[in-house]
Amino acid sequence: MVEIKNVLICGLGAIGSIYATKIKNANLKILLDENRIGRYQRDGLYFNNQRYDFSYILPSENNFKADLIIIATKSTGFLSAIKGLENFITEKTIILSLLNGIRSEDILKEHYSNAKVLYSYYVGHASMKTQNKVFYDGIGNIVFGEINNEKLSDEVLALKNFFDKEKIDYIIPKDMLSSMWKKFIINLGLNQTTALFQAPYGIFKVEYARKIAQNLMQEGVILAQKVGAKGNFIEDAFNLIDEMPPEYKTSMEQDVEQGRKTEVDIFAGEVCELGKKYGISTPYNEFLYNYIKGKESST
């Protein structure tokens, strides 16, 4: 079993910063471009008002081999990010992609067939990032594993041991496929509805917003059943949504507010593509996709 000693985190945004500040007992590097490295070396990262100064590395450097790589970029920067991993990967490297959506692991396997790509995602309260300041209430888990975890593989056990040592909260579901679709369906309702209304979680106290979220998610449920995923997806989604602090904002809503490109391609866009593949009508996600794309093109 691999012992995880060298860790590379790709991205220092709202999610990457959570785990960069948690890892204390490994040789940690943060992979960024030259401009971002210069900015963080000058200004630092403030996480819950405490300054952190990390060890940074450029994609062009080749003197560091990672036992574990955690990809924590937005989907909009994913393809360019994974191209910068080549110098740090060996046949023993474990890769986690904490991106939203359901396809990043397949893309990683195509690029790095020699590494060990585990399925994974983050679930919990969103952190709020403004420039180099991040605020986070500490509630969240990394969900990870093989597609089936009835028996844990050596890589899953190695990562479990590492997370235990670093006091990182995690979940290893037996059925990873269904678990990933559960998160995907939550995002269809949660991220997209808050982006549509440009409102925080409290919008779900409004019945009209809940109905829109339900319809967006229902199209995802039909697709999940097509691929063999199982669960009480919509009930579980609303249970999670109702636990969220009403003043918190999703990452997608923050993107719309700040005029950035959103992750609508991996949410509504993915639903529309799969709908065409399986001959399933997806009018709610089609409308949402066109609406958000229209907003992006006007900013």
Task: Write a structural description.
The chain contains eleven helices and twelve strands. The chain is α/β, with parallel strands linked by helices and 299 residues long. Helix 1 (16-22) links the parallel strand 1 and strand 2 (27-31). Helix 6 packs antiparallel against helix 7, helix 6 crosses helix 8 (233-243) and helix 7 packs across helix 10 (268-278). It is globular and about 50 Å long. The protein starts with 5 loop residues before the first strand and ends with a helix.
Short descriptors:
alpha/beta, Rossmann fold, N-(1-d-carboxylethyl)-l-norvaline Dehydrogenase, domain 2, 8-stranded mixed β-sheet, 44% helix, globular
How would you summarize what this structure contains?
The protein has eleven helices and twelve strands.
Q: Report the CATH architecture of the largest domain.
A: 3-Layer(aba) Sandwich
Low-confidence segments, given as residue ranges, are none
Strand proportion, as a percent range, falls in: 15-25%
* Tally of helical segments: 11
How confident overall, as mean pLDDT? 95
Q: How many structural domains in the coordinates?
A: 2
Task: Give the strand order, joined by hyphens, for the main sheet.
Answer: 5-2-1-6-7-8-11-12
CATH superfamily of the largest domain: NAD(P)-binding Rossmann-like Domain
Kindly identify the CATH topology of the largest domain. Rossmann fold
What structural class do helix, strand and pairing data support? alpha/beta
List how many beta strands DSSP finds: 12
Q: Please give the CATH class of the largest domain.
A: Alpha Beta
Output the radius of gyration.
Answer: 19 Å
Report how far apart the termini are. 50 Å
